[in-house]
Design goal:
alpha/beta; Rossmann fold; Dehydroquinate synthase-like, alpha domain; 2 domains; six-stranded parallel β-sheet; 15 helices
């Protein structure tokens, strides 16, 4: 029988606070006090660039703080941070940086049973607020359940200086919610998975924050605010659902296959932007509004943009279900042959139909 999430068992895993505004990165101590959160020994995680951008200043407001430079997101780095937390008896992890920093911070803090404050400097995916950490192991990325951040602090002034390519990737990752929710509902209707209508609704609302924005432009601080809010809502939807289902479906399976087979030809959000168009077409969803959004922001919309041949894309689509054997999507539902993949690729606009 189809199973909805029982009301009494709903998982309300949400942040204590979310702050999105200008000039916040130097006021982390004030923000925590405003929410009556008092930490005596925070440990800061940062990258080389983000230490200069804001971590150095933020640490100056916490006399007993410590810091670690994060250069990779693998188990060794997580263990290094976990040991440092234990040795220094730190009571909160504050991650200032991009995906590597935040992923390591989320997992290390969860394993150490202390809180994590997410301070993203590049909004390239919904990991800024999700309970999932992407950690490399055995040469591949693995999505590991951690905890949703205790708090999220986003400084719009910092995001304005983020590379345009990464901003586009963030928008691409967010748009994927449209196909992900459709896949989730399909799995529910086929009696393959549970379904949480509230988490699904929140996931779609996250997309609408940018899709319905009048005159979207990465140079507009208000659009950046909406993009970040969308990514945060997407992460919270995953926390409530207890899985990545609200933001990860067939489009992510194909992207994971691209990572596995070809080492990831583009940024995660770039790949997902392209595979989302394919999935939406496969699901018979209307593409007009989405394609117009892509056009206005110059988002990646063709396999050519990540130097991928149609043969490689076909291979990725057919391999994709193996990346998440426990997940049921439109790919598992239809079991596509090569010709069908090519036909959908042409109709979705991600391939011209020419081998040249």
């Amino acid at each position: 029988m189809e199973v909805l999430v029982p009301v009494l068992l709903r998982n309300l895993d949400i942040p204590v606070f979310i702050e999105i505004d200008h000039n916040l990165i130097g006021r982390i101590d004030e923000i925590l006090l405003n929410y009556h959160l008092k930490f005596s020994k925070p440990i800061f995680l940062y990258g080389r660039t983000t230490f200069q951008i804001g971590a150095q200043e933020a640490m100056g407001h916490f006399p007993k703080s410590d810091g670690i430079l994060i250069e990779k997101s693998d188990e060794d780095e997580v263990l290094k941070v976990s040991r440092k937390i234990a040795e220094g008896m730190h009571d909160v992890v504050i991650g200032i940086g991009g995906g590597r920093v935040l992923d390591v911070g989320k997992l290390a803090s969860a394993r150490s049973n202390i809180g994590f404050i997410s301070v993203p400097t590049i909004p390239s995916n919904d990991g800024i607020a999700s309970p999932v950490a992407v950690i490399k192991g055995g040469g591949e990325n693995h999505s590991i359940r951690a905890r949703i951040p205790m708090g999220i602090i986003v400084d719009i002034e910092v995001l304005k200086d983020a590379p345009l390519r990464h901003l586009k990737a963030g928008a691409g990752d967010l748009i994927a919610n449209l196909s992900a929710v459709h896949d989730w509902r399909l799995a529910f209707e086929e009696d393959k998975d549970y379904y949480d209508p509230f988490a699904a609704m929140l996931s779609r609302l996250a997309v609408e924050t940018v899709l319905n924005f009048n005159d979207p432009d990465f140079g507009n601080p208000e659009f950046l605010r909406n993009l970040v809010m969308g990514l945060v809502l997407s992460g919270i939807a995953m926390g409530i659902a207890g899985s990545s289902r609200p933001a990860s479906g067939s489009e992510h399976e194909i992207s994971h296959a691209l990572d596995h087979l070809f080492g990831g030809p583009g940024l995660h959000g770039e790949q997902v932007a392209i595979t989302t168009l394919f999935s939406l077409q496969l699901q018979n969803q209307h593409l007009g509004e989405v394609q117009e959004f892509y056009k206005r922001l110059s988002l990646p919309d063709s396999i050519d943009e990540v130097n991928l041949s149609i043969e490689d894309f076909v291979a990725a689509v057919q391999y994709a279900p193996k990346t998440r054997p426990d997940r049921y999507t439109i790919l598992e539902h239809l079991n596509l042959n090569q010709e069908r993949v090519k036909d959908v690729a042409v109709k979705s606009g991600i391939w011209s139909g020419s081998h040249q």
